[in-house]
Amino acid sequence: MKSGFVALAGRPNAGKSTLLNGLLKEKVAIVSPKPQTTRSEIRGILTSENSQIVFTDTPGIHKAQYRLGARMNKEAADVMMGVDLIYLVVDGSVPFGEGDKYVLNMVKNTGLPVFLILNKVDKMSREKIIANLQSWSSRFEFAEYFPISALKDKTFKDLIKATEKYLPEGEYLYPPEMTVDGSENFRIAEVIREKVLLCTEEEIPHATAVLVESKKFTKKSCYIQAMILVEKKSQKVIMIGKQGAMLKKIGSMAREELEGLLGKKVYLELFVRVEDEWRSRDARISEYGYGGAFRDE
Ligand SMILES: Nc1nc2c(ncn2[C@@H]2O[C@H](COP(=O)(O)OP(=O)(O)OP(=O)(O)O)[C@@H](O)[C@H]2O)c(=O)[nH]1
Ligand SMILES: [Mg+2]
C-alpha cells in the first residue's frame, strides 16, 4: 500500500482549493473569486483500496502587506517542506509573471518531485494549452504535467493514479473513514467567511476574520453564535448593511450550507465587531486560526 502527503501550492486564485474539493468530491476548503481566500493549511484525506493520500491545500503565495500575509506565505512554505510530492497549481488563463517565477523557484528549491497542474483549461483554446505546457516545461523539469479544469472535470482518476506512483510504501496515516483533518469550529467559521467573501467587495474580504464563539447541539438542531471581525467602523457598517440586510444575507447563505455540513437544523446568530489592525497582530491571527496557528499549538 502507498501512503503519503501532497501539497497543493501556487499563487492566489489559481484554483488550489477548488481542486482539493474536486479530488475529495467533498467541500473541505472554501473557494472564492477573491485572492488570498485560504489562510491556513487544509487537509483532505483520500483513501482507496491501495493508497491513502493526504492532500494539503495551502494559502496562495503573494507579496505580503500585513503580518497575516507573511504568516500565510510561511505556512505554504512550511507545508511544502513536509510532503512527498508537490502540485504546482497554476491558472493557465493568465500570462506567466513575476509571481509565477517566485513560486516556481520555491518549489524547485524543495528538491521534491513536482507536478505541473495547468488549471482552468475550460477557459483556454487547445493551442493555448499546448503553448502554455511547452512554456512551463522549458522552465523546469516537472515530474508530470496535467492540464485540468478543477471546476468542470468530473474525475481526477489519472492524476490520482500518477500521484500514487510518487508516494512511499506505507500504512494508513489517518483512519480510513476520515476525510478531513481540522476542527469543526474552524470549518464552520470558514463557511461563514466564504459567504462574506462572496457578498462584499474591495478591502472588506481581506480585513474580515470569523470566529465561532459558541456551539450547542440538541438531537435535531445546532445553535451557533459567531463573530465577524473587521478592522474599521466603516467596514462594520457595510457588513451589517441597511437595516441589517447584508448580515442577514450572509447568515442565511451560511446557514443553508451549514445545515448540509452538520446534518441538522442550524440556528445561526452573527455579530460584528471591530478589532483594530488584527491582521498585524500575531495573537489575533493565531486566535482566529490563520497562518499556521494550528501548527504552533
Ligand atoms: N473557469 C474556471 N474557474 C476556476 C477553476 N478552478 C477554480 N476556478 C475559480 O477560480 C477562483 C479561485 O479558486 P480557488 O480554488 O479559491 O483558488 P485558490 O488557489 O485556492 O486561491 P487562494 O485560496 O486565494 O490561494 C474561484 O472563483 C473558482 O471558482 C477552473 O478550472 N476553471
Ligand atoms: Mg484556496
Could you give a quick summary of the protein structure above?
The protein has helices at residues 16-24, 67-81, 98-110, 126-139, 157-165, 184-199, 204-207, 233-240, 245-262, 282-287, 293-296, and strands spanning 2-10, 42-47, 51-57, 85-91, 114-119, 144-147, 180-181, 209-217, 221-230, 265-274. The chain is of the alpha/beta class and 297 residues long. Strand 4, helix 3 (98-110) and strand 5 (114-119) form a beta-alpha-beta unit.
Give the full name of the CATH homologous superfamily of the largest domain: P-loop containing nucleotide triphosphate hydrolases
Q: Tell me the total number of β-strands.
A: 10
Bound molecules: guanosine-5'-triphosphate, magnesium ion
Mean pLDDT value: 97
Give the strand content. Answer: 15-25%
State the major sheet: 7 strands, mixed
Structural class: alpha/beta
- Rounded Rg: 19 Å
Shape: globular
Oligomer: single chain
**N to C succession of SSEs:** EHEEHEHEHEHEHHEEHHEHH
Tally of structural domains: 2
Q: What's the CATH topology name of the largest domain? A: Rossmann fold
| Cα end-to-end separation | 31 Å
Low-confidence stretches: none
- For the record, the CATH architecture of the largest domain stands as 3-Layer(aba) Sandwich
Approximately how much helix is present in the residues? 25-40%
- Provide the spatial order of strands within the biggest beta sheet: 6-5-4-1-3-2-7
At the first level of CATH, what is the class of the largest domain?
Alpha Beta
Give the helix tally.
11
Please tell me about this protein's structure.
- By secondary structure, the protein is of the alpha/beta class.
- The chain folds into two domains: 2-165, P-loop containing nucleotide triphosphate hydrolases (Rossmann fold), CATH 3.40.50.300; 183-296, 2-Layer Sandwich (GMP Synthetase, Chain A, domain 3).
- Helix content is 39%, strand content 24%.
- The strands form two sheets. Strands 6-5-4-1-3-2-7 form a seven-stranded mixed beta sheet, with helices on both faces. Strands 8-9-10 form a three-stranded mixed beta sheet.
- α3 links the parallel β4 (85-91) and β5 (114-119).
- The longest helix has 18 residues, at 245-262.
- The protein is globular and about 55 Å long.
- The model has no long low-confidence stretch (mean pLDDT 97).
- The structure holds guanosine-5'-triphosphate and magnesium ion (MG).
- The site of magnesium ion (MG) has 6 residues, from α1.
- The site of guanosine-5'-triphosphate has 23 residues, from α1.
